[in-house]
């Protein structure tokens, strides 16, 4: 992958809403342990605080 392609991919990823990862897993739940680690403990109440964010917005959030 070229540097130009990486920049383009990062831009696309940054604009994705966080909800995409729960609504449309890239790898099927049944065949991927990492997907199950994300989906199984999902807490809607805890996620509500960041539900409106994109990947880029979440990345920029202060952690404290």
UniProtKB/TrEMBL annotation:
Organism: Pseudonocardia adelaidensis
Gene3D superfamilies: lyase (1.10.220.70)
Database matches in PANTHER family: ETHANOLAMINE AMMONIA-LYASE HEAVY CHAIN (PTHR39329), ETHANOLAMINE AMMONIA-LYASE LARGE SUBUNIT (PTHR39329:SF1)
Taxonomic classification: Bacteria, Bacillati, Actinomycetota, Actinomycetes, Pseudonocardiales
Cited InterPro entries: EutB, EutB_dom_2_sf
Protein name: Uncharacterized protein
Pfam families in alphabetical order: EutB (PF06751)
